[in-house]
Design a protein that fits this description.
A hairpin with a 5-residue loop joins strand 13 and strand 14 (203-208). Helix 3 crosses helix 4, helix 8 (225-240) crosses helix 9 and helix 15 (450-459) packs across helix 16 (499-513). The chain is an alpha/beta fold and 566 residues long. It is globular and about 80 Å long. 56% of the residues are buried. Among the domains are: 10-79 and 521-563, Urease, subunit C, domain 1 (Roll); 279-513, Metal-dependent hydrolases (TIM Barrel, Alpha-Beta Barrel). Helices cover 29% and strands 21% of the residues.
């Protein structure tokens, strides 16, 4: 795995100036503030915005050391704050063979083509210890593929294929053996029950939900720290390409947080991170080691680049025909109440009507037991929520962090065809005074393009992919995902947002949801100079063209980390 860390530090990025010396002028700058939503220019000093206003006001601050960047009237927005993402999983996807792209998706229904692509990739990467992949495939028996197809492609090295949902993996025989998934059951019953086995007890090659942790342990033990650092650096630069300057890692642990800290110490981290403790659909247990790791992360990592103090729960999974439950309600409430008592921010994945209700009940009990404080409790996705439960979000100050790029299929993201209840009720949430944060959930969506998501938030257009139509348990196609094409039909148009509301959700909403709002999310004096310069004015172009927006320049703390001034 021949990966080498780039040698430049963020402070030496070509085009960046010294402290107090960057003036951006002649722009069409959306600040996101109510008092002054638009400006022409801004000045940066010591990574923060020193002034914002007219060209004349900013140019009055010019000194011989100043670098002046002419924006040429291009639209500028605050840096995208991706409120729910998986940087490490995205790094793996970037390093492997990706057969699910916006243009097309190659699935197991085309076995010869699929195995040929994986075989070609493996042959062109002879030094890779593990062959990674990202593919659309069924996760329900008997429709799920088996290890034998991957064995045909690569028989002599481990192959680990991630389902695009990141709630399932498909392994060849080499990978099963390397991850110690044998005929003997895994020691952890939560992991073992998520390993697909045939009638003889042999692993078929599919692991879902918590079962993926056995594979993740093997991957982390196999890749060196330097290899992991190099992969993450590639991933963060990819995020910068889409104007992303801050992220919340919706899964992670102390080991992963240390990787971001190492990149920060080397001056190589170009995305601000807040990382949650949690693994996909694996129940938390408050062991002494887990609590010690949480405490160490909170004590050591709380700056503008690397922060923690966040715990991620999964109320349900996202595999199969019906998302599986992860907790009994009583156990979930007890965990939530105890971690809330210890002062951690909590976020919970919930995609079912009943699990959203369970999470709200647990949050309500924790507040009652532990008293008032600024919790910023979050529910991730909030895709299927009853009207009565939507009304509970604001009184409990629960934040809805969701991914509009996944909407919309013919039934939204409500996978129960017999239930007519609408999903993704963004207008209802906003009109009810609920804070909303937007996210890509990358690499579940590909790429991490906020502008496709913003387009979907304002159009609610239904997309469909013929490439994945044969995957019976695939819940939705998503906007510009897996070969999906717009249909011209619209799902629940009354739930549309305005462009400014969608941008605000992707900036200040996600910043607030992450306790980053004092530093990022809007462009105003004193905040960090994180911004994106766009190829077109997303506030005036036809709505169906917003997704075509390119980011010409991304700036983090006053330093250019992608592109250049127009």
């Amino acid at each position: 795995m021949a990966l080498v860390l780039a040698t430049f530090a963020i402070g030496l990025v070509p085009g960046a100036a010294g402290a107090g010396d960057v003036l951006l002028v002649h722009g069409h700058i959306y600040t996101g503030t109510k008092a002054a939503p638009w400006a022409e220019a801004l000045a940066v000093h010591d990574s923060r915005i020193e002034a914002i206003g007219t060209d004349a006001e900013v140019l009055a601050l010019r000194t011989p050391a100043s670098q002046v960047l002419d924006l040429k009237h291009h639209t500028v927005i605050p840096g995208i704050v991706d409120g729910h993402i998986h940087v490490w999983l995205g790094a793996i996807a970037l390093h492997g063979v990706n057969l699910s792209m916006p243009e097309a998706s190659i699935t197991p229904s085309k076995p010869k083509l699929l195995t040929a692509r994986i075989r070609e990739y493996a042959a062109s990467h002879p030094s890779d210890k593990i062959i990674f992949g990202r593919i659309d495939f069924a996760t329900t028996q008997p429709f799920a593929p088996s290890a034998s197809m991957l064995d045909e492609a690569v028989p002599d090295r481990p192959v680990v294929v991630h389902n695009v949902s990141e709630h399932a993996m498909w392994l060849n025989s080499q990978a099963l053996a390397a991850a110690s998934i044998t005929d003997a059951p895994l020691a952890d019953p939560n992991e073992e029950r998520n390993v697909y086995r045939d009638a003889g007890g042999h692993a078929t090659g599919i692991v879902i939900e918590a079962g993926m942790e056995a594979v993740e342990r093997y991957v982390r033990a196999t890749l060196s720290v330097e290899e992991q650092l190099a992969m993450i650096q590639v991933a963060t630069k990819e995020l910068n390409r889409f104007g992303i300057t801050t992220v919340v890692n919706a899964t992670g642990d102390l080991q992963e947080i240390r990787l971001y800290a190492a990149l920060r110490e080397r001056g190589l981290l170009t995305v601000r991170t807040r990382t949650a403790f949690g693994a996909v659909a694996k129940p938390h247990e408050l062991t002494p080691q887990f609590l010690a790791d949480l405490d160490e992360a909170r004590n050591l990592y709380h700056d503008e680049w690397v922060s923690a103090n966040l715990v991620k729960f999964f109320a349900d999974g996202f595999s199969g025909v019906l998302q599986p439950l992860v907790y009994r309600p009583r156990d979930f409430r007890a965990l939530i109440t105890e971690l809330d008592r210890r002062g951690y921010q909590l976020m919970t994945h919930a995609t079912r009507f009943d699990t959203a209700h369970m999470v709200l009940d647990a949050y309500e009990e924790a507040e009652r037991a532990n008293g008032p404080r600024d919790r910023r409790l979050r529910i991730e996705h909030s895709s299927s929520v009853r009207e009565a439960d939507i009304a509970r979000y604001r009184p409990l100050a629960v934040i809805n962090v969701t991914s509009p790029g996944f909407c919309c299929g013919d039934s939204g993201t409500n996978i129960d065809a017999k239930d007519p209840s609408p999903s993704d009720q963004w207008r209802t949430f906003l009109d009810g005074g609920v804070v909303m944060g937007f996210s890509s959930d990358w690499p579940c969506s590909w790429p991490a393009n906020a502008f496709v998501s913003i387009q979907e938030a304002v159009t609610r257009e239904i997309w469909h992919s013929s490439d994945t139509a044969d995957i019976l348990d695939l819940p939705l196609d998503g906007a510009a995902l897996a070969g999906a094409r717009p249909t011209g039909r619209v799902y629940t148009p009354h739930q549309r947002l305005s462009v400014s509301e969608a941008v605000d959700a992707y900036t200040q909403g996600s910043a607030y949801a992450s306790f980053f709002d004092r530093d990022v999310g809007t462009l105003e004096k004193g905040k960090l100079a994180d911004l994106a310069v766009l190829s077109q004015d997303i506030f005036s172009v036809p709505l169906k063209r917003i997704g075509r927006t390119a980011v010409q320049m991304t700036m983090v703390g006053g330093h250019i980390v992608h592109g250049a001034a127009p």
